[in-house]
């Protein structure tokens, strides 16, 4: 629980970015508290892959270890929902859902993204074990497997060809939607012999968390080992928008070299900033943001 009413830094979001920043803010002897809503994007995923020094660690275990390290360094943590952030640099007010209010000199947003998940019967049963959203995270675990990609937007062809890094058996599934494929995308899919199935998917089937097939409307079936979906995603919170932080059309925030947003005193790290959506990258950015915040708090009297 928070031990004071005001902090040097309030970190919003307790994933790899938020916890890594809290760890290093503690090391810099800055008073910091992490408020975390406890609803991570990768909650269903069985493991975080490719994280240096940790072998296939479950997401919640990574968070537990991160919390322990951050608290040991002097940061504080509470499972809590932030309702709003008001004020300005050196004088922010953070209000939680239970109406408690805390002050902060700096704000660090690590609120992540949320995906639109297809509403297909059986889908949730395999989400995180045979169905994923991130090819960088889970593609390397699927060498030469039969993979379906659910999506229909203009970038879906690039998503499909990206998966050719690990397998040549990729099929685009548009789930009844007309695919928005520019001529060049159609040419690339044809060149790499990536078929396009436009039928509505009635359900997905398998056992023990392992996908075996999709069943299309009308009864036709297709055997698959895994599915990736790429429909749309957006910010996991409206706090950045409410604060007036500049962002692109997808809600990804503009940041400077110190991870400061366009709003003075407000910083950001992790999936809501430009770059890959890997946990290890989010943690690294959390450290960079912590360093930027620490430097911004050094008094003028100490600067030479």
CATH-scheme architecture of the largest domain = 3-Layer(bba) Sandwich
Largest sheet: 7 strands, mixed
Q: How many domains make up the coordinates? A: 2
Mean pLDDT: 94
Question: Please, what is the CATH homologous superfamily of the largest domain?
Answer: FAD/NAD(P)-binding domain
Rough outline: elongated
Considering DSSP H and I runs of 4 or more, what fraction of the residues is helical? 10-25%
Care to count the β-strands?
17
Structural class call reads alpha/beta
Figure out the total of helices.
8
* End-to-end Cα distance: 38 Å
Question: The CATH topology of the largest domain, please?
Answer: FAD/NAD(P)-binding domain
Spatial extent as radius of gyration? 21 Å
Unreliable runs: none
Describe this structure in words.
- This protein is α/β, with parallel strands linked by helices and 304 residues long.
- The chain folds into two domains: 6-114 and 233-302, 3-Layer(bba) Sandwich (FAD/NAD(P)-binding domain); 117-229, FAD/NAD(P)-binding domain (3-Layer(bba) Sandwich), CATH 3.50.50.60.
- It is built from eight helices and 17 strands.
- Strands 1, 2, 3, 4, 5, 6 and 17 form a seven-stranded mixed β-sheet that branches.
- It is elongated, with a radius of gyration of 21 Å.
- The protein starts with 5 loop residues before the first strand and ends in a 7-residue tail after the last helix.
């Amino acid at each position: 629980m928070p031990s004071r009413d005001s902090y040097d830094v309030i970190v919003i979001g307790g994933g790899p970015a938020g916890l890594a920043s809290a760890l290093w803010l503690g090391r810099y002897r800055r008073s910091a508290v992490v408020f975390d809503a406890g609803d991570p994007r990768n909650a269903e995923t069985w493991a975080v892959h490719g994280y240096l020094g940790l072998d296939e660690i479950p997401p919640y275990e990574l968070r537990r270890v991160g919390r322990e390290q951050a608290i040991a360094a002097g940061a504080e943590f509470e499972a809590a929902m932030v309702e709003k952030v008001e004020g300005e640099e050196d004088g922010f007010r953070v209000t939680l859902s239970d109406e408690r209010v805390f002050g902060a000199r700096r704000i660090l947003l690590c609120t992540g993204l949320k995906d639109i998940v297809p509403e297909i019967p059986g889908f949730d049963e395999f989400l995180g074990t045979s169905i994923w959203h991130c090819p960088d995270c889970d593609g390397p675990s699927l060498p030469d497997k039969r993979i379906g990609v659910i999506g229909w937007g203009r970038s879906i062809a690039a998503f499909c060809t990206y998966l050719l890094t690990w397998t040549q058996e990729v099929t685009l599934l548009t789930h009844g939607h007309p695919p928005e494929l520019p001529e060049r995308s159609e040419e690339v899919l044809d060149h790499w012999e990536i078929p396009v199935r436009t039928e509505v998917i009635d359900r997905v089937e398998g056992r023990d968390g392992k996908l075996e097939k999709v069943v299309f409307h009308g009864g036709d079936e297709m055997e698959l080992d895994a599915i990736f979906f790429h429909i749309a995603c957006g910010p996991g919170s409206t706090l950045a928008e409410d604060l007036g932080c500049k962002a692109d059309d997808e809600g990804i925030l503009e940041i400077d070299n110190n991870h400061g947003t366009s709003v003075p005193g407000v910083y950001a790290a992790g999936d809501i900033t430009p770059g890959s959506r890997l946990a290890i990258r989010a943690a690294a950015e959390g450290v960079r943001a912590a360093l930027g915040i620490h430097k911004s708090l050094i008094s003028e009297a100490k600067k030479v």
